[in-house]
Amino acid sequence: MKDKLQRIKEEAFKQIQDSDALEKLNEVRVAFLGKKGELTAVLKSMKDVAPEDKPMVGQLVNDTRQAIEALLEETKSKLEKAALQLKLQNEGIDVTLPAKKEQLGHRHPNTIALEEVERIFIGMGYEVVEGPEIENNYYNFDALNIPDNHPAKDEQDTFYINSDMVLRTATSPVQVREMEKGKLPIRMIAPGRVFRSDEVDATHSPSFHQVEGLVIDKNITFADLKGTLAEFAKELFGPDTKVKFRPHYFPFTEPSAELDVSCYKCGGKGCRFCKGEGWIEILGCGMVHPNVLRMSGIDPDEYSGFAFGMGLERIALLKYEIDDMRLLYENDYRFLKQF
Ligand code: DAH
């Protein structure tokens, strides 16, 4: 029995040492230690051993098994290491090459300007709301008191999707959607993208952004409009900023005005920046037309309000002294990272 075990051990060791792959090693394990393995057979024949020899033989079988298992384990980890080494070699990474540096993005000047505008109006108790970029004729034109013969309705100026749907030409339709909700008073701004069929140049783009504003409550007067927008201009362009309201016409407001701010570069004396004017136009505004209120279900005898609309790019160009609007759309990191 002793000899037999010795032979099994020697044979197992030899086969293990000859194994050059993990699969082969496993075959050896099965051949000796498996259910039908050689050592297992010896274990099964233990019943024929004389009772007084059993402890000694049992010990021997165990020792043999442990020796084989130990060598199997050791060889297995050697083979695994060798396989990993080979894999690493084949992947061949050249660690001396310079690393690729990830470039972090940068907030867009439009975004920075919008956050500034939002900060100012939120500070005055306004809510920020949004509306759809695709509108129907009612919200984009009719509900804003824009008559059929108005040039804005012209296919030359507006992107029509079909006879009733347009890419909104202003953020003003969001006013209507907000008024229709029937929750008064209203104090809101609505930033968003708008579309006009314009050629691209230094001051025009077929897609740009506006921020609309609307206040509706009892006893709102033109004085509220002036005070609010004067305060806004000071916050945006500095405490010495003066404002000038020039009479204008919009179908959805009456009376209407355009707001000019004193040039923050020259303080109003006139310079290259304000083209010698001393003033820079920044937005349109006015008292909401009674027709507009009525169409959205608000009684103009009980409520009144003011509205305004500004081009966001215009604000960004002025504030950051950018002289060509196209730069805002090129997404050139070298340009964007300056702001
Ligand atoms: N909708 C106007 C435009 O696109 C901007 C505007 C002017 C909005 C006066 C208003 C407003 O709400 O009262 O040019």
Describe this protein's structure:
A hairpin with a 2-residue loop joins strand 6 (243-250) and strand 7 (253-262). It contains eleven helices and nine strands. The chain is elongated and about 120 Å long. The longest helix has 38 residues, at 54-91. Strands 1-4-5-9-8-7-6 form a seven-stranded mixed β-sheet, with helices on both faces. Strands 2-3 form a two-stranded antiparallel sheet. The mean pLDDT is 93. It has helices at residues 2-18, 22-33, 38-44, 54-91, 109-123, 137-140, 173-180, 222-237, 290-295, 312-319, 333-336, and strands at residues 127-128, 134-136, 165-167, 186-195, 207-217, 243-250, 253-262, 279-288, 304-311. It has two domains: 2-91; 109-336, 2-Layer Sandwich (BirA Bifunctional Protein, domain 2). Helix 1 runs antiparallel to helix 2 (22-33), helix 1 (2-18) runs parallel beside helix 4 and helix 5 packs across helix 10. It is α+β, with helices and mostly antiparallel strands and 339 residues long. The structure holds 3,4-dihydroxyphenylalanine. Residues 170, 172, 212, 250, 253, 284-286, 307-309 line the site of 3,4-dihydroxyphenylalanine (DAH). 3,4-dihydroxyphenylalanine is lined by residues 170, 172, 212, 250, 253, 284-286, 307-309.
Helix-strand blueprint:
Blueprint: H1 2-18, H2 22-33, H3 38-44, H4 54-91, H5 109-123, E1 127-128, E2 134-136, H6 137-140, E3 165-167, H7 173-180, E4 186-195, E5 207-217, H8 222-237, E6 243-250, E7 253-262, E8 279-288, H9 290-295, E9 304-311, H10 312-319, H11 333-336
Parallel strand pairs: 1-4
Antiparallel strand pairs: 2-3, 4-5, 5-9, 6-7, 7-8, 8-9
The structure holds 3,4-dihydroxyphenylalanine.
